[in-house]
Specification:
Elements (H helix, E strand, L loop, with lengths): L8 E6 L3 H12 L4 E7 L2 H11 L3 E5 L4 H9 L4 E6 L6 H6 L4 E4 L4 H13 L10 H8 L3 H11 L4 H8 L3 H15 L4 H12 L3
Parallel strand pairs: 1-2, 1-3, 3-4, 4-5
């Protein structure tokens, strides 16, 4: 399937290590729906690129937090996907800083692409605070669905969740499809935010 250049998701990559930037570029260049508009080794060059190109997504290394502050303070439309090697993630803290998704650097390339596509297709409305109806819907989920929702909020991929629950990643996909339908959400980022908000009692 051909994708018009105007329909491609424009991406800025920000990471201090050339091998990581090259690896991400190779993965995204092979896909017809992504276009890399800049690849930056530090916060300053990334911020300049984001201001100039206003990309759809910036893939940002966890050690370059200045970028988050600029995007938030200037109200830039770019969505942030945090790329991290940290063993213990704190998704709630990252989302509170304005991050749209968190991806580990050892993630499968297909899981990375799936996350990027979900972030690109998510709407501003989906990223808002969940209402009472959503909280009621969470309570109506099965125990297994709530368990999967919790693991998604911890940043685990379908494959990792499948291993944890001793089922195939295909089974996890089916469960997630049902969860998305029941909660009327379209991506893992919104799902994680819903769970964290519900778990905190807000």
């Amino acid at each position: 399937m051909r994708v018009s250049p105007t329909e491609r998701t424009r991406v800025v990559i920000a990471d201090p290590y050339p091998v990581i930037r090259n690896g991400l570029s190779k993965v995204l260049d092979a896909e017809p729906d992504f276009r890399i508009v800049a690849d930056c080794p530090d916060s300053a060059s990334c911020i300049k690129a984001i201001r100039e190109f206003l990309p759809d997504i910036a893939i940002v290394d966890v050690w370059l937090p200045e970028i988050l502050g600029v995007i938030s303070s200037e109200g830039l439309p770019t969505r942030i996907v945090l790329f991290t090697e940290l063993e213990k993630q704190e998704p709630g803290r990252f989302y509170a800083l304005g991050v749209d998704a968190v991806v580990r650097k050892d993630a499968n390339p297909q899981d990375l692409l799936q996350t990027l596509r979900q972030v690109a297709s998510s709407t501003q409305a989906e990223s808002g605070r969940p209402g009472g109806d959503a909280k009621k819907a969470i309570k109506a989920l099965t125990d297994r669905e709530r368990q999967i929702m919790r693991l998604v909020s911890e940043g685990l991929s379908n494959k990792e969740i499948g291993r944890r629950l001793k089922v195939t990643d295909g089974t996890i996909k089916v469960h997630l499809h049902h969860i998305f339908q029941k909660l009327v959400v379209g991506n893992r980022t919104t799902l994680a935010a819903l769970y964290l908000d519900h778990a905190s009692g807000n």
